Amino acid sequence: MFDVLVNDVLSTPAILIGLFVLIGNLLLKRSMTDTISGTFKTIIGFTLLDLGAGIAADTLNNFSTMFTEAFGLQASVMNTDAYGALLNDTFRLTPIIMIVGMILNLVIVKFTRFKYIYLTGQITLYMAGTMALVFHGFHPLITIIGGSVLLGIYMAVSPALLQKYTANIIGSNDFGVASSGSISYFLAAKIGEWFGDKEKSTEDIKVPQSLGFLQDSTVSMSLTMSVLFIFISFFTGSAFIEEQLSNGQNYLFFSFMQGITFAAGIQVLLTGITMAIDELIPAFRGIAERLIDGAIPSLDAPVMAKYSPNAMIIGFLSSLAAGVLGMFLLSFTPLPVIIPGMLQHFFIGGVGATYANSTGGRRGAIIAPFITGLLMAFLPSIFLVFVGNGLSDTVVFGDTDLTLIGILLKAITQLFQ
Question: What is the pTM of this model?
Answer without folding.
Answer: 0.80
